[in-house]
Specification:
The chain has about 775 residues and is mainly alpha-helical. The chain is built from 39 helices and seven strands. It is globular and about 95 Å long.
Length: about 775
């Protein structure tokens, strides 16, 4: 049966299934408001999937803290095929699904194992995977499924997501989307009249249609319970609430009319996201409710109890749970904790925490152990949630502070800066030892850096590094490097805690271990560059690039952008591309939302320099989407250079103005230098060399790593704008660096620049040919 008013959406889903039948793979995200019909469309796909193997899962709000919970829903009936996977992939899925104990699996291996497991099923017949309510997926499952969706090829797999909008799901950003909007007024009226009995006043129909705004669930639920008088024209005024709230209220009104015992049973079901009937009956028995109490709820159409407990809509669950008293919620969670099997300690710990009315060390310790298991499975977001709840239930102040610090770190790594700051405030209220105080300052600085890239971070990090020098020398060196990274954005605006000051301060860092780590090589290279000069830094630079290209650990992820910057300073274009590509891969595989935008922006810079403006724009868009999703700021300094290279003057100038304002507000010199660079690129391309020269000179006078990008614009603007003496002097300055670098890209830039200031056409021709050969 065709869904009312959804002909185009059904056709799009039918096209997806058709492509998969022909041996292709497709991923599609259905986005729309709660109740708009995403689930109905996914059901249409399931009903149309003749000849397909089918599996489905749904995100559950109460399970967002449990790593890989949704992935287990989706793949739980495929576990007999795990043995066919390569050993590392088989072991990784065995750990995340709790089949056996092992080391925390690499996220890349988990993603690859999931992809290959689905491909194994699809080798017999096409496979349809449906994931509803994706906005409530646990973080580990969301990232794994997004990894799979981006790598589908010719496996004959359809992967369909239904996600509420807003909010979006950052991990799914960039996947093909189908936006599910409201029904037209004509279709809304027809749907409403199909469920209203007898004669209905036209004004009532108009009012419901207007209030529902095309939302099918609202059209079906809002009129329920109206009297004949209401339908004849006395329709009550609807209060000013969001659409979701009004739908929830409609569900709640039906719930409230049920017997008290049935209400209690439904509350237990709402608090128990697994949908396990046996667990529901065990928990209900301890509260004096049972199977017979479910009859009225099923008759009212609120819930179905079969092999699983399924609410008619997620809003039924949320309406019941949110309207319950705290006391009743605690009773329900307590009963569920007692009924939950010991084989599922994480869920039992979470229910025990929700049942607690005050501090409880035993429950807090259970939650801390659950956080450890979550980290073992790669669920950093889940670990943060467990640790936060553990901290709030901890009676001892010192222990509460320690757990709060761990929660803050997990939240920050998961890209949730507001939650990290909330936990840092909790930790600050308790006594801290030297190591904890340094950790607190470091985390506060890292949150500040991720959130706004401003000048607050460097002094906090330098203080933490000094404090740790005598306590943990390796960690101290790491924090000195963090301070340098933060200072790189401040530049010279803050003479006390700016870039050169950070390099000078880092000279007093403890000695590197033997053998040095990747980050030790990086710190030494940057100290050499900004205290001893460019030529002295080149040998250090080359060691750093080699070390990062050989790195196979996500521990180095946060430093890749510095290694990438070093490759730019060295004019090593091959390393720029390889480092940026590797950085994005590591960030995706690690699920590091706080670091992925920077990685994407770096790769966009490489694609822009290569002239692939479409790819650069797509990468910038994805980075900004993720940044907005985690509460950070999208930076115009990534969009302006691309607009400049495209020669879009009005757009570039608008972005540049915004860049300067935001960079000044954040105290970030890097943003202002980026604005100058975009200005220089724009005006060189437009042949307005006087304006380009002013902007390029401001960058080169700073003698930053940006020199490598700006010097070519300065030389061309000066040479073509009649400033021959300046152009020649700058070429001489450039030669000192390109000869020290020795890369083909550097020597090509030098040859091209010398051609611009050559005395005659013959010499210029030979130099241009040399540049072309080297760039080839």
């Amino acid at each position: 049966m065709e869904l009312r008013g959804r002909r185009e959406e059904c056709r799009a889903l039918d096209d997806v299934l058709g492509d998969v039948r022909r041996g292709e793979s497709r991923a599609l995200v259905l986005r729309g408001q709660a109740g708009v019909g995403k689930t109905a469309l996914l059901d249409h796909a399931l009903n149309s999937a003749d000849g397909f193997a089918v599996t489905r899962a749904a995100g559950v709000e109460a399970e967002v803290e449990l790593p890989y919970a949704a992935l287990h829903q989706l793949c739980g009936n495929m576990l007999d095929r795990i043995e066919r996977l390569p050993t590392p992939q088989r072991d990784a899925l065995g750990v995340v699904f709790g089949l056996h104990v092992g080391e925390p699996p690499d996220r890349y291996v988990v993603g690859l194992a999931t992809l290959n497991l689905l491909a194994e099923i699809a080798s017999d017949q096409p496979l349809l995977c449906v994931v509803d309510d994706a906005q409530w997926l646990d973080q580990a499952s969301a990232r794994t499924l997004a990894f799979v969706a981006r790598r589908l090829g010719a496996e004959s797999i359809a992967l369909l997501f239904g996600a509420r909008q807003p909010p979006g799901v950052a991990d799914l950003a960039g996947l093909p989307e189908l936006v599910v909007g409201g029904l037209s007024d004509v279709e809304s009226r027809a749907l409403l009249l199909s469920v209203l009995p007898g004669r209905v006043d036209a004004g009532v129909v108009d009012r419901v249609v207007a209030e529902a705004r095309g939302n099918p669930l609202a059209l079906l639920e809002l009129p329920r319970g109206l009297t004949a008088a209401d339908l004849a024209g006395g329709f009550p005024m609807l209060r000013s609430m969001s659409l979701s709230s009004r739908i929830e209220e409609a569900f709640f009104n039906r719930y409230r009319a049920l017997p008290k015992q049935t209400q209690l049973l439904l509350l237990v079901a709402a608090a128990e996201p697994v949908g396990d009937p046996a667990l529901l009956w065990r928990a209900g028995a301890s509260l004096g409710v049972g199977v017979e109490d479910a009859t009225a709820a099923e008759a009212e159409g609120l819930v179905q109890v079969g092999t699983r407990v399924v609410f008619r809509h997620p809003l039924v669950r949320s309406a019941i749970y949110n309207a319950a008293s705290i006391h009743d919620r605690q009773r329900s969670h307590g009963a569920l904790a007692d009924a939950t099997d010991a084989a599922d300690p994480d869920r039992r710990a979470w229910h025990r925490a929700a049942s607690s009315s005050g501090p409880d060390e035993e429950i807090a310790a259970d939650l801390e152990r659950a956080a450890g298991r979550a980290l073992d499975r790669g669920g950093v977001g889940a670990a943060g949630a467990f640790l936060e709840r553990a901290a709030m239930l901890t009676p001892d102040p010192a222990r509460r502070s320690r757990r709060a610090l761990r929660a803050a770190e997990a939240h920050n790594d998961a890209g949730i800066p507001d939650a990290a700051l909330r936990m840092l405030a909790v930790a600050h209220d308790a006594p801290l030892d030297d190591l904890q105080r340094a950790t607190h300052e470091r985390l506060r600085a890292r949150v500040a850096f991720v959130s706004n890239r401003g000048k607050d971070a460097p002094p906090l990090l330098l203080d933490a590094a000094r404090r740790l020098a005598s306590v943990d020398s390796a960690l101290s060196r790491e924090i000195y490097l963090e301070a340098w990274l933060a200072a790189a954005f401040v530049g010279h605006l803050d003479r006390t805690h700016g870039l050169v000051a950070a390099a000078e301060a880092s000279r007093s860092a403890p000695a590197a271990p033997d053998p040095p780590r990747t980050i030790d090589l990086l710190l030494d290279a940057l100290v050499a560059r900004y205290t001893a000069g460019y030529e002295a830094a080149v040998p250090h630079y080359k060691k750093v690039i080699h070390a990062f290209l050989e790195s196979r650990t996500s521990d180095d992820l946060r430093w890749f952008t510095l290694a990438w910057s070093i490759a730019g300073d060295l004019w090593d274009d091959d390393a720029l591309h390889r480092l940026a590509t590797r950085q994005v891969q590591l960030a995706r595989d690690a699920g590091a939302l706080a670091m992925l935008p920077t990685a994407l922006w770096d790769l966009a810079g490489v694609r822009m320099q290569a002239g692939d403006f479409r790819a650069a724009g797509a990468l910038n868009d994805e980075a900004n989407t993720i940044t907005n999703a985690i509460g950070g700021e999208a930076h115009e300094d990534r969009a302006a250079p691309l607009a400049a290279w495209r020669g879009r003057e009005a757009e570039t100038l608008h972005l540049i103005e915004a860049m300067r304002e935001s960079a000044q507000a954040r105290g970030e010199e890097r943003g202002m230098l980026s604005a100058d660079h975009a200005t220089a690129v724009l005006y060189v391309g437009l042949g307005r060399y006087d304006l380009a020269l002013v902007a390029a000179q401001r960058i080169c006078d700073r003698d930053e790593t940006d020199f490598a990008w700006a010097v070519t614009e300065l030389i061309e603007a000066a040479a073509r704008g009649g400033e021959h003496e300046l152009a020649t002097a700058t070429v001489d300055q450039l030669k000192a660096r390109t000869r020290a670098s020795g890369t083909d890209y550097a020597l090509a830039i030098e040859a091209r620049s010398r051609a611009l200031v050559a005395d005659d056409d013959v010499a210029a021709d030979a130099l241009y040919r040399e540049a072309i050969t080297r760039l080839g």
